[in-house]
Amino acid sequence: ADDGTVTEVRTYLMIFMRSLKLAVISTIICLGMGYPLAYIMARAEEKTQRMEAFVRPLWGLAPLWAGGGECEDFDKIYLEGIINGTDPKDPEYWGKLKSRAQELCESPALAHSILLAPEKLWDPLTEEQKNNVAEWLYGANGLEHADNNWHFFQLLVNVCLKKLGRKYSQETIDKKLEIIESFYREDGWYSDGRRQRFEYYIPFALHFYGLLYAKLMEKDDPERSKLFKERAMLFAKHYIYYFDEEGREIPFGRSLPYRFAHLSFWSACIYAGIEPYPMEVMKGIIARNLRWWMSMPILDNAGILTVGYGYNQPHMAESYTAFGSPFWCMKTMILLALDDDHPFWAAEEAPLPKLDSIHIMKPSSMVIQRINGYACLLPTGQDGGGENHSDEKYSKFLYSSKYAFSIAGSYANKDSAGADNMLMFECKGNYFIRRKCIEYKVNDDASVYSKWSPFDGVIVETTIVPTEKGHIRKHKIQADNEYIAYDCGFQLEGDKGAVIGAGERVEITTTPNLNLYNPRPLKMKAIKYNIKKGNSEIHTEVVYP
Questions:
Q1: How many Å apart are CA 100 and CA 97, to the nearest integer?
Q2: Cα 200–206–207 angle (5° rounding)?
Q3: pLDDT at residue 141 above 80?
Q4: Is 139 in contact with 169 (CB distance < 8 Å)?
Q5: Above 80 in pLDDT, residue 216?
Q6: N or C: which end of the chain has fewer CB within 10 A?
Q7: Closest-CA residue to 120 (of 156, 170, 68, 161)
Q8: What is the CA radius of gyration of the chain?
Q9: What are the DSSP calls for 108-119, one per residue?
Q10: Whole-angstrom distance, CA of residue 517 vs CA of residue 159
Q11: Angstrom distance (rounded) from CA 416 to CA 407
Q12: DSSP codes joined into one string, 236-255
């Protein structure tokens, strides 16, 4: 009864696997001829980056194999790579796992894939080779790492080792479960560690891994497995608001080059056997999103998956993003592990259910509006952690599924400051926006308050009040001098939307290649204000296009 979706999803996987194969071939050619790699580089060692590019596609390949599919000769390639990468005597040995190293991030993909597709990745190994793989994975124990979703890496590795009947650490499992529990807030929300940060690592890491644990440990740890499922059910009631009627999700936060990894939460729900929404609704979300991504220019002219978001845009990435990092999108392909007769494949795609026009998410200090068929996120208080362009990724007044946002190219001119949906101050030839918030809260009426400072000498208290057509910004400003400020709206093509205020209406032509969807120069409407010394108040209305 399959309506073609299983074939469609498998086809998308094949496209990316061919992309990977081209990347591997190009790498071998470049290294063989003594040329440097023609990819962007991350802060990790080059050897580690190649290992990352090799392992991450297993999130898609292993489910494909588990579901009875095949992918050219990748089973042989991966079997050989795993054997060599975990053999201390082999020139291709990955090396022992080390504290804070990127290899630790990839270890769950390897461990879980072996469990999922043992006939491809485990059964053909000799006993010595199995020992090497198990020993390499066990090396994850006792290592220091980021105090966030990374705790799940050691947890899942030990769970998988336990399932394989190999040496594992129950102490690590218990300890990591306790730490992950401390990240939980309420109503389905975790924070990504101690830091006040609620981005896509909540759905595609903390909940995704929690659902994998629930699937693996349903009989061994039924209480915890049930808890992870219940929390995912709660979170889904918020997360559905991130997706619009065209299938797009709201670009926000770090690690956006992982692209449709944002879908992996829904895939994991189905894989773990829970239905926060009817199967038809979840299928609609997944299918529309995948089709939208496949309509975007995310592959280069050689067919290789690029670093960027809506197109090849490496300067928007974090310092940990390497040429293979985007293959984390393969986590969504956990769907391919479903049997061909699973209800998901036969279900008819359904549109989104009727959603509220305003949705408050108090645990994360955020509000989502839905206007004109798309979604807008109003965040506050997020701590981007100082990574590349974290101010633009976390601190704007609004993030839109339809128009995306821009990063900054330069703070030396207003065209390149990435100030869309921001109050931008001009000071001594430079331009400044909201960064970290001093205070913040979401009120019961869905208004969002923040107290912030663009630079020493200026304090701003901003209240965003949602309306039927957009929102109103109320800024109370304490200034030690006179300044010029621009309250900016969306970046658009054509004459759409409106920004209304008591100041001078201006239009700023923004620099190309900064917007995450659109590389063209775009128009940004804004109100220019002359800020007086002392206390003042300005109000700006933004009408959504």
A1: 9
A2: 90
A3: yes
A4: no
A5: yes
A6: N
A7: 68
A8: 24
A9: HHHHHHHHH-HH
A10: 39
A11: 8
A12: HHHHGGGB-TTS-B---SS-
